[in-house]
Design brief:
Blueprint lengths: L1 H54 L4 H4 L15 H4 L10 H32 L5 H10 L9 H11 L6 H8 L3 H12 L3 H9 L4 H12 L1 H17 L2 H6 L7 H6 L12 H22 L15
Helix pairs in contact: 1-14, 4-7, 4-8, 4-11, 11-14
């Protein structure tokens, strides 16, 4: 019996090991393929940033050469310090950066909260014509934002809030159609049992929103915060239209070529160095918020 047992088991063991070996080979080949694809895409996406960095190190002769050069022969590192104290700017570099950070924070904080309220209302509250108004909300996402510039300028001018932070505050408390749709989809995925349990515990919808649903929506909050911060930080049109030159943001200075020499000629190395500094806050915001992108399981909220 022992011989038959061993004889019967040995081929199965060899067959199992061969199956695992074949599966391991397929998995290894697939993994290598994904890594190669990811590396190639990373090179493609990262090349413009490398080229921008190299441009900030070129000499004037290399920048004006007819045949482009791809490596700085004499790196000009001083442009990274000159851009911080360049005298020909309308205001200082640090004031430009502070204006951008202030407007981006004001807008992103307000619109993240108000859009969550709108999304919660569409996902959980009941009311007449709710689907109709939600269709209107989604339909406004198809309208280009540039269409609103002129009528909003007239509105803000009549309200007396031009050349101040108030346009960004008004936009922030008005919520966003896209972010409201994002929140609505996230809140609708939360089990209804959690809402029923909150009502049984005596929670109203306001308390339910702030103490139950909003803490569970960290992935959506992080996404909304990143999108809204990046939108204002990269916005060139609104600051150039609604603000004076003394209130400009960093996007207007970098995108408008405000880094000029004494002959009023743009200094491309300074613009490249300023663009590198300009990317740092957005990268930091993404690094801080990226760990909230993966939504956690809600099953633990229903236990007990």
């Amino acid at each position: 019996m022992a011989r038959e047992y061993q004889a019967g088991r040995r081929p199965a063991a060899r067959q199992t090991s061969s199956i695992h070996l074949r599966e391991g080979r397929r998995l290894t080949i697939g993994t290598v393929g994904w890594y190669v694809t990811a590396i190639l895409l990373a090179i493609v996406f990262f090349t413009p940033f490398v080229w921008l960095f190299l441009n900030s190190l070129f000499t004037n002769a290399q920048m004006s050469a007819f045949e482009p050069e791809f490596w700085p022969t004499d790196p000009q590192w001083h442009y990274f310090t000159d851009v911080l104290t360049w005298p020909n700017l309308p205001i200082s570099f640090w004031q430009l950066a502070w204006n951008s950070i202030r407007l981006a924070l004001e807008y992103s904080i307000l619109i993240t909260i108000t859009s969550a309220m709108v999304g919660f209302a569409f996902a959980r509250l009941r009311g007449p014509l709710k689907r109709f108004w939600f269709a209107i909300l989604v339909g406004t996402m198809m309208i280009p934002g540039i269409i609103y510039v002129y009528p909003q300028y007239i509105m803000f001018n009549r309200m007396g809030v031009l050349y101040s932070d108030w346009p960004w505050v008004i936009w922030g408390i008005s919520a966003s159609n896209y972010l409201s749709f994002l929140y609505r989809q996230f809140f609708a995925s939360i089990p209804v049992e959690l809402e029923d349990a909150s009502i049984v515990d005596g929670c109203g919808y306001v308390r339910m929103f702030f103490q139950v649903f909003l803490p569970l929506s960290k992935p959506a909050v992080a996404t909304a915060a990143i999108f809204s911060f990046q939108y204002v930080w990269n916005d060139y049109i609104s600051p150039s239209v609604y603000l004076t030159q003394d209130q400009w943001t960093l996007s207007v200075a970098v995108g408008g070529g405000s880094f000029l020499d004494n002959q009023q000629t743009p200094v491309l190395q300074l613009i490249s160095a300023a663009a590198i500094y300009y990317m740092i806050p957005v990268v930091l915001v993404f690094i801080v918020c990226q760990r909230f992108f993966l939504s956690g399981s809600l099953s633990g909220s229903l236990k007990g």
